[in-house]
Amino acid sequence: SEISTPARPVLHFTPEKNWINDPNGMFFYQGEYHLFYQYNPYGEKWGHMSWGHAVSKDLISWEHLPVALEEEDKVMIFSGSAVVDYQNTSGFGTGNEPPIVAIYTAYDAKSGFQSQSIAYSNDKGRTFKKYNQNPVIDLKKADFRDPKVFWYQADKKWIMTVSLSQEKKVQFYSSKDLKKWDLMSEFGPAGVTAGIWECPDLFQLDYNNESVWVLGVNLGTHSIAGGSGLQYFLGDFDGKAFKVNPSLTKEPLNFIEYGKDFYAAVVWEGTPDQTKERKWLGWMNNWEYADKVPYYGWRGSMSVPRTLRLQKQDGYFYLKQEPVKEIDNYKKKSVEKNAIGIQDANALFSGFIKSDSLSFSTSFVISPSEIHDFLKFNIKGKGSSVINFTYDKAANELVLVRAKSSKNVDSKQYPTIQRVKLDKSDREFEVRIIVDKYSMEVFTHDGKYVFTNLFFAPSNDINVSFEASKKDQKLVFKSIGLYTYL
Ligand code: FRU
């Protein structure tokens, strides 16, 4: 059932073959980013969940490694994390290399229970052995999963954030050795509680001299664009419990972004300057239709890797995301123009972008005061819009519209309209759009607003252009950049 496609995305991680979902076990060690991921080694649909593995020096070029943790005896390896145990607290260390310890959910298909287990590596994460006294936390529950572990230096202990998915709770455990865990506290239900809670994450971020704790909670369903997405809470953590501080954010509910295809994101552990910025990516898909997107020899990919920062505006904090800088090293061709009109910009696009190699990015500045009606960035296939992004002046909104798929993603939830209301006084802002074969990621306002969406266009007759109403035909871009990659 493979649908032919010209080539792989160039800026996005894809597995060599088969099904993937969540990113797992992300840690950084000796210049290498490790990415594990939910993987079915045997097929193109979810099943036999195991941890696939890849490493990268720059988050863009990935080296595929053998499956790191495999399903065994009908016990699947669900999502989780990995840490470098520098002080050998676990005692798993042998030589001079610190052990790498993976903490994952073991899903026993026979009992239906989910428990937390560990495995360790003595070769920089190349190969893992499962601990012989697993599980390390067992509540005999069916929905208890996705442990994320980090080292809490103030108390010299490990902390695990893990979810009770159906109860819409996050639990916090502590440990001195990664083997024996004590429950410290619980958080939730809170925020969006209609959908199940999965893949939680807790970390600290600074903005100048202020410091805030972030609790990320992935929502299997009922997120802002429908289906899967990520809500976050900002507050305080004292080493034992997380407390939301509602005065930190403008809105009571906070979502990391507005698109449909960014899920199960958690941050890398051990990257430089961790409280200043975190690195992360998400599974670029949505449980509403994840098994219905075309199979290209693989099914599923990760979002573009991003830098996550804390930002403050008018007294309120929020998280912002921008594509990692390393992407720029892969630019192959660039065009940059100042003071260029819409028609000329479109001529640039058509000369620059080949529909059989649809991997490019563009950056341009929108000046609301110079627009009468709207400015639309449109990707069309065979004449009709597949996906488009619009600044709507009258509504003062950013609008992302994705049409029914021409490759028949057979799901009523696939077509979508995503809207974000801008502040009244919005000044000019930059829009950055990354298109990579079958995804479009839009970043505006320095990463405050992000829309991540898959799209499936016919592989020929693709047109990329700006559109505007009659009144706005004379619109001139202050600057525009257009880039292809690899
Ligand atoms: C999230 C999730 C996790 C689980 C994994 C199973 O997408 O449902 O909660 O561990 O996928 O593949």
UniProtKB/TrEMBL annotation:
GO terms for molecular function: hydrolase activity. InterPro entries: ConA-like_dom_sf (IPR013320), Glyco_hydro_32 (IPR001362), Glyco_hydro_32_AS (IPR018053), Glyco_hydro_32_C (IPR013189), Glyco_hydro_32_N (IPR013148), Glyco_hydro_beta-prop_sf (IPR023296). It comes from the Bacteria. Gene3D superfamilies: Exo-inulinase, domain 1 (2.60.120.560), Glycosyl hydrolase domain, family 43 (2.115.10.20). Residues 334-479 form the Glycosyl hydrolase family 32 C-terminal domain. Residues 12-317 form the Glycosyl hydrolase family 32 N-terminal domain. The keyword Ribonucleoprotein does not apply. SMART domains: Glyco_32. Keywords: Glycosidase, Hydrolase, Signal. Belongs to the glycosyl hydrolase 32 family. This is Glycoside hydrolase family 32 protein.
